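User: Structure please.
Assistant: Input sequence and predicted structure:
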Amino acid sequence: MKAQNLGSTVCLIFMSAALAAQVAPQGDATQPKSSTQTKIPANDAGRSRVDEELRLVLLRVAFPAARLTTSKDQPLDWSPLPSLPGNIRDALAGETEYTVIASPDKYEEGHAREVMGDGSGRSTTRRLRWRVLPFSNGKNSPVQYLGLAHYTFPDIRAANCCIYFARLFLLSRSATGWSEVHTGPSLIDRGRAVAGLRLLDLDGDGTPEVLFEGEGSQAGDDFIALQVYHIGPNGFEEWLGDRGVAISFNFYDGDQALYVRELDVSATKATGAEGFFFKEIWYRRKGIALSPPETGKVQFPRANASRQER
């Protein structure tokens, strides 16, 4: 099976025990790991690491022209799509849902457009969850904040590609006030769930990289995509270039494959994140279940593509 170019991602896909039983041959074949069993990268199921007052301050910095309220409606379903195999969790479970009303920017326009009727309907209302993680570059460095906004426009029916949106924010405070930089296009493409968000220093410079796990699909494939961003002086730099490599439960072009990859953090750190190293296990190749599963390693080079907006 060929690796597929997905744009802005390296992906991890895990299959359920039930599916494993269907595809694995009889015998002692090892079953695929689920994301909750994978040590690195791991789901971060905790709530934001700041209090509610600061959360709202930072949300207003992220959406400065918006009307913000805590949603009193029934919580939405943010769980992974049923078609996605594996024990994938909603990493933002338990976060407060907010109503955020503001005009969509150019990247949000497709997500805020009604596809029913004449297609002229537009929405300005987001149902949004907000994860905030503080970090600093060292003992004497000021605290900065990583924000993740995960949202949908619930009062319209958007195209299937564009129902859910995810965006990273870098929020900083100086003597002159707050500032922010954010990514542009949605980190989720044709998917719904956020499976993980973590800060981990991969290049050894004292500033953590952002590891984001989001759901997606393409040409019949369903996957979880790991995206890695370096936090540089000008904001976010994408370090797995041209949207990465598909690692998926795949029925594409008749080449039925099932495999998982896990980031080898030690090997990646050893190169200063000049390359990203993954351990891989194949459970099915070209429609044939493998017993025992095939194991290997694969490497992807670092790229330096900027994906931010001011």
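Helices lie at 17-23, 52-62, 265-270.
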